[in-house]
Design brief:
Blueprint: E1 5-7, E2 15-19, E3 24-31, H1 36-51, E4 59-68, H2 70-90, E5 94-101, H3 105-116, E6 122-127
Parallel strand pairs: 3-4, 4-5, 5-6
Antiparallel strand pairs: 1-2, 2-3
Helix pairs in contact: 1-2
Length: 128
């Protein structure tokens, strides 16, 4: 049975909230763990299990990152790939939100680069 996940942020890992009932996933903070795959593996597993749910609820994947390293970037792309697959199989029941501080051109550009690689829409959302 798929359950909610909550991971508190640390100095090197983001906070994570994954809720089954409303299909909400948020990853917020900084991401530069020593072993990114080890940190992100439970998130991959959860998203894949969510994608196998029979009723195909809406999935909202929200990123509110202020920094991530190269290995985290690969893991983010893997999460987006899972979401892309879900989007295709669910008839469009997925949305990606990429939040960036309005003064952070690098994070905006990262969001744009991820969006270029995806067929599902990624909303780029500036905040103060």
């Amino acid at each position: 049975m798929l359950t909610d996940i909550t991971i508190e942020k640390t100095k090197v890992t983001p906070a994570v909230v994954m809720r089954v009932n409303d299909g909400f996933v948020e990853i917020a903070g900084e991401s530069y763990p020593e072993n990114s795959v080890e940190f992100y593996q439970p998130l991959f597993d959860w998203l894949e299990a969510f994608a196998d749910l029979p009723n195909k609820p809406m999935l909202t994947l929200r990123f509110r990152l202020s920094y991530f390293n190269t290995s985290s970037s690969k893991c983010i792309m893997d999460l987006l790939d899972i979401a892309q697959s879900y989007y295709n199989r669910s008839g469009g029941a997925a949305t990606i939100e990429w939040y960036y501080h309005e003064d952070d051109e690098d994070m905006l550009e990262s969001g744009r680069e991820f969006a270029e690689d995806m067929d599902l829409p990624i909303q780029l959302v500036a905040f103060r």
